[in-house]
Every structure is written in C-alpha cells, then in structure tokens.
Design a protein that fits this description.
By secondary structure, this protein is an alpha/beta fold. It contains 9 helices and 5 strands, in the order βαβαβαβαβααααα.
Length: about 200
C-alpha cells in the first residue's frame, strides 16, 4: 500500500496565480458544477473518484492537481482518499464559495446548457431537511403526534452533521439521478483529463 501523502491547501489567491499550471478537478455533483466552476475545471464527482484513479494518477505525474468543491469539505475528503492511493493533490481552501467571494470569475454554462445547471448540494439539503421537518410537524398535528419524531430526527441529524462536518443527507441526495453524471459525460471528462 502506498504511503499516505499529506494533502496541501491552497487559498484562492494562491490558486489564482497558479491556475494555468494546475489540473483542477471539481468533485461536486454535475448540477453544482454547471452552476459555476473554476475556469478550466473538470467535473469528477467525489463518488466517481475511484473510477478515475488511473487518469488522476497520470495527471498528478504531469503536474499539480487541485481538488475543488463548494466549501472545501468534500475536496478535503477527496484529497485524503487520493493520498491513501499515493496520489498527491491540493484542496482549495473555502472552495468555489471562497473563490467567488475573493472576486474571481466562475465559468458558467452557456444559455443552451442552463437546463443542466441545478441547485447546489447545500441548497438541496436545506430544502429536503426543511420539507421533512414541516412534513413531520404537519403529520404530527393532523394524523398522530408520533410523527413529530421525524422532525426531531432531522434536527438531530443536522446537529450531528454540523459537529462532525459530514452530511449523510448530501450523500443520499448525491445518488439521485439529477446529481449523477451520465456515463458519457464522465467518459468525456476522463478523456479530456488524459489528453491534458
């Protein structure tokens, strides 16, 4: 087994000055990626990294690889996973939120591609959690008070998510069809990565 490598973190300014020499991999869902990504970034969702290991290993052999997500949490996890596979990578501190917050441009889909642009994972989680809490409260009032447990369970899950900096709901939502890359999209991304 390869020796784990320590992931490196780059701030938005560091990444901006080195952007032309970096291979940037956005590990968010295709919908999130379509809503705006770093210039030149390729989309390989975090749950597809294992499939992309050969291409990522080759890219890391040619130069530095920067992993990006919305806030830095998923890309940090991706860096740790890749380090365990012997692939050195860096993560963008604060993710695309910090990048945009620093005033740097995000590439967005053209007008004909806007149908692919979806909600960010954070927005999907807030919507789902809010809907489930309201549903639990309504069912508790209208059907049986025991349905209030649903709202309490979601609240507990959100607290656990904040304390552990993980999100089980995001993992489940990422598996929905609208958040998964089509096989052709991922194959094209891997081909583009090999060609760099």
């Amino acid at each position: 087994m390869p020796n784990p490598l320590s992931p490196v973190a780059l701030g938005p300014e560091q990444a901006r000055t080195r952007l032309t020499e970096l291979t940037v991999i956005d590990v968010r869902t295709p919908g999130e990626y379509a809503s705006g990504h770093l210039p030149g970034a390729l989309n390989i969702p975090v749950d597809q990294l294992r499939r992309a290991l050969p291409e990522l290993r080759q890219a890391a052999g040619r130069g530095d690889v920067l992993m990006v997500c919305a806030s830095g949490a998923r890309s940090g996890n991706a860096c740790r996973f890749l380090a365990e596979q012997g692939i050195p990578t860096a993560t963008l501190t604060g993710g695309t939120s910090a990048w945009a917050g620093a005033g740097h441009a995000l590439d967005r889909p053209t007008a004909c591609d806007t149908a692919k642009a979806g909600w960010s994972m954070e927005r999907q989680v807030r919507f789902t959690a809010g809907t489930l809490v309201l549903l639990g409260l309504l069912l508790g009032l209208l059907v049986h008070p025991a349905f209030g447990i649903l709202s309490a369970g979601i609240a507990g899950g959100l607290v656990f998510s904040a304390l552990t900096d993980t999100c089980g709901m995001a993992v489940v939502l990422a598996r929905l069809p609208h958040n998964r890359p089509r096989s052709a999209d991922l194959a094209a991304t891997l081909a583009a990565l090999r060609a760099r």
